[in-house]
Design a protein that fits this description.
Blueprint lengths: L1 H11 L1 H5 L3 H18 L17 H7 L8 H8 L3 H15 L4 H10 L11
Helix pairs in contact: 1-3, 4-6, 5-6, 6-7
Length: 122
């Protein structure tokens, strides 16, 4: 709120704005833009934000199979890895996506752009 007040004060006062150098004016303008974006409409979402921990290459490979109805053994056979490795990757995926089920993991992965949205109708 303090930064917002400073940015509003400087932006509204031409004398104070003129007293700033080019770098300071740019910084104030950037701050005002950021604050404007933060005040903008936020779309309500039941999905939690992406936690920030990136998926590994192997986890991403397993993630691609989640929308299918293949089990861990079938996914393992497709990827030439063990079923235990698939289950380990699934645990990590669920944790990183904040999901508790396969369906929830797929929904969250689609919501954040890690999986393409299905064209099939439910």
């Amino acid at each position: 709120m303090l930064l917002e007040a400073i940015a509003d004060d400087v932006a509204d006062d031409p004398e104070r704005r003129a007293g700033h150098g080019a770098a300071e004016a740019s910084l104030v303008s950037e701050l005002a833009d950021l604050l404007g974006e933060a005040k903008g409409p936020v779309s309500p979402s039941a999905e939690p934000p992406w936690p920030g921990e990136p998926l590994t290459w192997s986890e991403t490979r397993v993630l691609r199979y989640l929308p299918t109805h293949m089990g861990a053994r079938e996914i393992a056979a497709e990827l030439f890895i063990s079923a235990n490795t698939v289950r380990t990757h699934l645990r990590h995926l669920y944790r990183k996506l904040g999901a508790h089920s396969r369906q929830e993991a797929v929904q969250r992965a689609r919501a954040i752009g890690l999986l393409a949205v299905s064209s099939r109708r439910p």
